[in-house]
Model the fold of this input.
Amino acid sequence: MSNVQKLPTAAISFYTVNKAGRNFDVVLVTPCPGKDLKTRLRRWSDREAAIADAKATADTMKRPFKMRGAAA
Done:
């Protein structure tokens, strides 16, 4: 029986916040060749609430939180 090990080339998923019309989505992004896979988890009407939720989720799931542009 062999042990499964994490490959060093494995892409790490991360959480971010995207603007969607008047709302803000908490999104899980999984880097893939060609185009990233984006999964919307929750929708917020307040940007700060969305960022706080994404940071808390990233911390709980032990994944990075990334924002495009200025640091949030």
